[in-house]
Amino acid sequence: MLSTTPRTTLGRKKHRAVTDRSALHAVLDEGLICHLGIVRDGAPLVLPTGYGRDGDTLYLHGSTGASSLRTASRDLDVCVTVTLLDGIVYSRSVNNHSMNYRSAVIFGKAKPVVDPEAKMHGLKVLTDHLAPGSWEHAREVNAKEFAAVSVLSLDLAEASVKVRAEGPDDEPEDLDADAAWAGVLPVRTVFGTPEPSTDLSPGWQVPAHVTGRE
Amino acid sequence: MLSTTPRTTLGRKKHRAVTDRSALHAVLDEGLICHLGIVRDGAPLVLPTGYGRDGDTLYLHGSTGASSLRTASRDLDVCVTVTLLDGIVYSRSVNNHSMNYRSAVIFGKAKPVVDPEAKMHGLKVLTDHLAPGSWEHAREVNAKEFAAVSVLSLDLAEASVKVRAEGPDDEPEDLDADAAWAGVLPVRTVFGTPEPSTDLSPGWQVPAHVTGRE
């Protein structure tokens, strides 16, 4: 079960809350980027960044463009949000238009991963999420690169998942009036045809871990 | 030109910064949801929400699940981020793997839109973004709905845009080694086939503003 701290208990539309941990894992595993929120000089800052999950640990690249992250000498309060948009909900009234989505919101303290073995594991988890198969296919991280990169970890202890996955929710009078179309326009994220690098030497075929990605 | 306050000046990968206002508008117009960051009890909170743009004003639904937004008696410091993921960049080394993306980060104070005419305009802008054509097709907002909804506005005065739109950036030694495939796997957001509501009366065809959406 997911935690029920005050800030993970939904204040409205409680019926959209999903409280099993497998739902959290599923949203995180399907998403490609997260939005990482921190407080900088008292103001919010939200940056997109890659991530990866292993069990109930989320790994984040420490070099996300926020100097606050890179220079954090102590653990940093973060909110990490992953949103999967599944559809646009067209209702019979403008007011009931909505979106179908699955979102995960995680609160916690992001900690720099210092131990070399744990850090290398974090890099593998990040790579496996961004580009499954690349850890085995591409050139491994060398000592210089390893020293330059930073990895943060975040426990998935305090998290909430919210899901809307249904058709329009119209008012009885709008159903009676029957004056507008209602339904869902699905939204999906898809991969296109791989584009080999212009400097790739002849003879390379696109490897299976790229062509087979879904 | 976009502003160059300290917090919109990129601390790293400066070459990814795009400084013309049309690039900001293009990212905002193509995105479907934003991630809205606020500070609540000193900690960051990031929530997905719909938005719409008119000129250099961004409109947000005030009822996004964050009670902090609904009860804000004064202007609220926010960071709004919209990210379009365009591709996974497979490099010859694990370390140079990356993503192609376009992202916009906006800082400012979200203000409740109180004037009825301005608020109705904000609702139209939000609807036009979420579901173009629905403002004309669906039943208009009635007085009760209008009173219950809240709209926030945010000036696009302080914003930055970051773009990566290129192939792998590999090390010379990895190019020489020629030991891994390199290229980009495009990522796109697409609409599927419209799914009429199960309670839709027979005879309705999917209207053009839904079928024609791209």
From TrEMBL, chains A, B:
Coiled coil: none annotated. Residues 192-214 are annotated as: Disordered. It holds the Pfam family Pyridox_ox_2. SUPFAM superfamilies: FMN-binding split barrel (SSF50475). This is Pyridoxamine 5'-phosphate oxidase-related. It comes from Amycolatopsis camponoti. The lineage of its organism: Bacteria, Bacillati, Actinomycetota, Actinomycetes, Pseudonocardiales.
